[in-house]
Amino acid sequence: METLKIDNVTVYLCAIPGGDGSRRERERMAVNSLVEQVFPGCKLGHKSSGAPFIDIPGVYVSVSHSRNYAALAVSEHTVGIDIEEPRAQQLERVVTRFMSDADLKACPNLLDAWTAKEAVFKAAGVDDAMLADISFETATLATLGTCRFAIRHHHRPPLTIAIAQST
User: Fold this and answer.
1) Is the pLDDT of residue 111 over 90?
2) 122 and 162 in contact (C-beta within 8 Å)?
3) Residues 76, 140: Cα–Cα separation, whole Å
4) Which residues are bridge partners to 152 per DSSP?
5) CB-CB contact of 4 with 10 (8 Å)
6) Distance from C-alpha of 80 to C-alpha of 90, rounded to nearest angstrom
7) Is the Cβ–Cβ distance between 28 and 17 less than 8 Å?
8) Fewest CB within a 10 Å sphere: which of 25, 47, 57, 164?
9) pTM of the entire structure?
10) Is the CB of residue 124 less than 8 Å from the CB of residue 48?
């Protein structure tokens, strides 16, 4: 397990193991392993929206995974995390579905933009929102409806990590 401190958020990372089971099962095992290491004896729960939670007062979590890594973000405030590995061609094919021209000017790096919007989506906890509904004011500030979110990026090759918290 690797630990990163990004502002007031602690991020725990681990590799997703190979082997038996579906990719989804291996992702779940990796996340559960992180939870057990960080919060021994606690289990990750899920709200009706699917958002994860830990039943510890004042502790907020968010989870993400890429092809090869799992991440657990822990904060004293509502938080969203997304991690991704490079995939420029895939993002270029769908950019018009999640980025406006104004978004592209504010945050021209597609991987940073994608991870930021995913993190905001998770932090907002709004079931019916779409990534296109999230707008960038700058590469580190986004809005969804009337809510504003601070975004922090951390580049830890091969990962791009985005953390979002409401302001």
Assistant:
1) yes
2) no
3) 20
4) 163
5) yes
6) 23
7) no
8) 57
9) 0.94
10) no
Mean per-residue pLDDT for 28-32?
A: 94
Instruction: State pLDDT tens for residues 56-86.
Output: 999 999 999 999 999 999 999 999 999 999 9
Tell me the average pLDDT across 86-111.
92
Tokens of 139: 């590469």
| Three state DSSP letters for the chain | CEEEEECCEEEEEEECCCCCCCHHHHHHHHHHHHHHHHCCCCCCEECCCCCEECCCCCCEEEEEECCCEEEEEEECCCCEEEEECCCHHHHHHHHHHHCCHHHHHHCCCHHHHHHHHHHHHHHHCCCCCCHHHEEEEECCEEEECCEEEEEEEEEECCEEEEEEEEC
Alpha carbon distance 44, 143 (integer Å)? 28
Cβ atoms of residues 125 and 38 within 8 Å:
no
Residue 21 has pLDDT above 90, yes or no: no
